[in-house]
C-alpha cells in the first residue's frame, strides 16, 4: 500500500473515527483504525462491537491496500505534523508515515483479526442536522450514568409519522424533545423505536451539528439491532441497548394554569450563586410567590445564602426543594429568554408532585419538556 493525502483532511478524518472508541479497550485489536486505499479513495474506519465510525476522503492512491494501525497514536501524530502532504507506505519495517522532514514508523496490526464494520440497509429518514444536534443536547444529559440499569443510560428515539422524539430519564427527571422527521414516504402512524447509548448520541450531535441533513437508518434484528447516522462522507453506527424503556410519556401532565414565568438567564445566575453554600446533593429551597421566586440555602459551615428573582405567578404560593444541578441543566436546555415552571398535581397525597419546565413562548405545542421530581425539605 502507498498513498498521499492532504494533512488537514487526513487529520480530521482520523480524529473523527477514533472519537467514539473507549479510552481503554480490553481487546487491543479494537484500538486500531482500519485504512483501506482503493480506486474510490481512502476509507478510514473504527469499530468496538458497539459503535463504529467510517469516513471516505480523497487521496492519491499509488498502490491499493489495507492496513490496521493504532488509532489514538495515529490521531496524535497527524494533528502535530507540519503543513505538508502526508505519504503513507508499507515496507519491511512496518507502516511508514512521512510529512515534510518528519518520518514515523508504526507497527502494523493484524487486519485479518479485525471485525467487519456493520453495514446498514434498513428503513431510513432524514432530520435537519442543527435541530437534531440541539435536541440531543437538550435530552442526553438526563440519561443515567449508572450502568446498573443499562436501559436508563440511553436516549429513546421514537419515530411516528413525520416526527422524531428523543426521550431520556434517570428516574429523577425526564427530558423530551420533538423534531421533524422526513421518511420520504406517506406518514405512517406506527412507531419505530431505538434505544441509543447517550454517549454515542452526544458525539453524533457534536460531529454532525453543521452537516445540513442527517440520514437516520434502522437495521438488523435480535441482539444485533443497529442504528446509523450519515451526513456527507461520514457514518456512525451504534448497537442498540436491549430492554424496555420505561413508559415515561404518561408522566407528563395535562396543561395546568398553576405556573410561574421567570427570566431564564436571571434564574440560572441566581441558582448558581445561592447553591455555592449548599452541601453536595442537598436540595435548594424555592419559594414561588406573588413577589417573585426566592431561593434559600444553608451549608454545614454556617454559611447561608438567599436571593430573589422577578417572576409572574399564576395560582397559589409554592415552596419546593429542587436539585440545583438538575434545575440548571434544564434551564440551559430551554433555549428561550423566559421559562415556564408548571406545578403539577398528584393523586398520591404522600408523594411530591413533579414540576414541568418548558420554554415560555407565544403559543403552540412545546417541542421541549422537562419533568423534575422535587426533593423533601427539612423543616
Automatic annotation (TrEMBL):
<dbReference type="GO" id="GO:0008408">
    <property type="term" value="F:3'-5' exonuclease activity"/>
</dbReference>
<feature type="domain" description="DNA polymerase III beta sliding clamp N-terminal">
    <location>
        <begin position="1"/>
        <end position="118"/>
    </location>
</feature>
<keyword id="KW-0238">DNA-binding</keyword>
<dbReference type="InterPro" id="IPR046938">
    <property type="entry name" value="DNA_clamp_sf"/>
</dbReference>
<dbReference type="InterPro" id="IPR022635">
    <property type="entry name" value="DNA_polIII_beta_C"/>
</dbReference>
<protein>
    <recommendedName>
        <fullName>Beta sliding clamp</fullName>
    </recommendedName>
</protein>
<feature type="domain" description="DNA polymerase III beta sliding clamp C-terminal">
    <location>
        <begin position="249"/>
        <end position="353"/>
    </location>
</feature>
<feature type="domain" description="DNA polymerase III beta sliding clamp central">
    <location>
        <begin position="127"/>
        <end position="246"/>
    </location>
</feature>
<dbReference type="Pfam" id="PF02767">
    <property type="entry name" value="DNA_pol3_beta_2"/>
</dbReference>
<keyword id="KW-0963">Cytoplasm</keyword>
<comment type="similarity">
    <text>Belongs to the beta sliding clamp family.</text>
</comment>
<dbReference type="Pfam" id="PF02768">
    <property type="entry name" value="DNA_pol3_beta_3"/>
</dbReference>
<dbReference type="GO" id="GO:0003887">
    <property type="term" value="F:DNA-directed DNA polymerase activity"/>
</dbReference>
<dbReference type="GO" id="GO:0006271">
    <property type="term" value="P:DNA strand elongation involved in DNA replication"/>
</dbReference>
<comment type="subunit">
    <text>Forms a ring-shaped head-to-tail homodimer around DNA.</text>
</comment>
<dbReference type="GO" id="GO:0003677">
    <property type="term" value="F:DNA binding"/>
</dbReference>
<keyword id="KW-0548">Nucleotidyltransferase</keyword>
<keyword id="KW-0235">DNA replication</keyword>
<dbReference type="GO" id="GO:0009360">
    <property type="term" value="C:DNA polymerase III complex"/>
</dbReference>
<dbReference type="InterPro" id="IPR022634">
    <property type="entry name" value="DNA_polIII_beta_N"/>
</dbReference>
<dbReference type="Pfam" id="PF00712">
    <property type="entry name" value="DNA_pol3_beta"/>
</dbReference>
<keyword id="KW-0808">Transferase</keyword>
<dbReference type="GO" id="GO:0005737">
    <property type="term" value="C:cytoplasm"/>
</dbReference>
<dbReference type="InterPro" id="IPR022637">
    <property type="entry name" value="DNA_polIII_beta_cen"/>
</dbReference>
<comment type="function">
    <text>Confers DNA tethering and processivity to DNA polymerases and other proteins. Acts as a clamp, forming a ring around DNA (a reaction catalyzed by the clamp-loading complex) which diffuses in an ATP-independent manner freely and bidirectionally along dsDNA. Initially characterized for its ability to contact the catalytic subunit of DNA polymerase III (Pol III), a complex, multichain enzyme responsible for most of the replicative synthesis in bacteria; Pol III exhibits 3'-5' exonuclease proofreading activity.</text>
</comment>
<keyword id="KW-0239">DNA-directed DNA polymerase</keyword>
<dbReference type="InterPro" id="IPR001001">
    <property type="entry name" value="DNA_polIII_beta"/>
</dbReference>
